[in-house]
Specification:
The chain has one domain. Helix content is 0%, strand content 51%. It contains no helices and 8 strands. The chain has an 8-stranded antiparallel beta barrel with strand order 1-2-3-4-5-6-7-8. The chain is globular.
């Protein structure tokens, strides 16, 4: 639910995190949109973000979504338009409760060498909660 909208982190791995928004479409009380960005760094130390978005039925505790990355663009639009999103792989987000997130991920084969790649499972903790929204 929207109570899962927050920032997620792992105290053992600084420099990366997840920002997630969970919301209803206007007029649709049966489904949620889950939109999130996993921010980290590429092998050369430059910021690298993966994004995913999927529609899920209310009450869903596990979400699988395709992940994408974008190159190009720049601060304030000074570097031209960004390239279209490029498929990276998939991610599955699981919530054992409102304070713990498990991320299982796998990159697609054949990505450019400069793009971070791999597969695995990560555990994340809730950083905070939206003002006035307790976990249900």
């Amino acid at each position: 639910s929207g109570y899962l909208s927050t920032s997620w982190y792992n105290p053992a791995t600084s420099g990366e995190g997840i920002v997630m928004q969970v919301y209803e479409l206007l007029g649709d009380t049966q489904n949620f949109i889950v939109n999130f960005t996993w921010s980290a760094y590429d092998p050369s130390g430059l910021p690298f973000w993966l994004t995913g978005q999927v529609t899920v039925p209310r009450g869903t505790r596990t979400v699988t979504t395709p992940m994408f990355y974008v190159t190009g663009g720049g601060l304030g639009g000074n570097a031209g338009a960004a390239d279209p999103p490029t498929p990276w792989g998939t991610a599955t987000l699981g919530f054992s409760d409102c304070n713990h997130l498990t991320l299982t991920y796998a990159s697609n084969p054949g990505l450019p060498a400069i793009v971070p790649q791999g597969s695995g499972t990560r555990s994340w903790l809730r950083l905070g909660r939206l003002n006035g929204m307790d976990c249900e």
